[in-house]
Write a structure and sequence with these properties.
Strand order of the largest sheet: 1-3-2
Order of helices and strands: EHEEH
Strand content: 15-25%
Largest sheet: 3 strands, antiparallel
Radius of gyration: 13 Å
């Protein structure tokens, strides 16, 4: 990035499932339309909310519900 040494404040949403591993959740999020990209740390999915517009929150919620009921 343009400021690699700078820290930008954010909020993260951390998701973990006992039924589906983080790699599978991330793959399902990426296959969503539109794709949702997240990072994985210690088998948790992390969604960085500084990259999400307010109008995208409902779409992410719907995608997560689909994933939860598909497992």
């Amino acid at each position: 990035g343009a400021l690699p040494g700078e820290r930008i404040p954010t909020r993260l949403i951390s998701l973990h499932s006992e039924k589906i591993n983080a790699e599978e959740i991330a793959a399902r999020l990426r296959s969503n339309t539109p794709p949702i990209f997240a990072r994985i740390e210690q088998d948790h999915i992390l969604l960085d909310m500084r990259t999400v517009y307010d109008e995208e929150v409902d779409m992410i919620s719907v995608a997560l519900e689909k994933i939860a009921f598909r497992s």
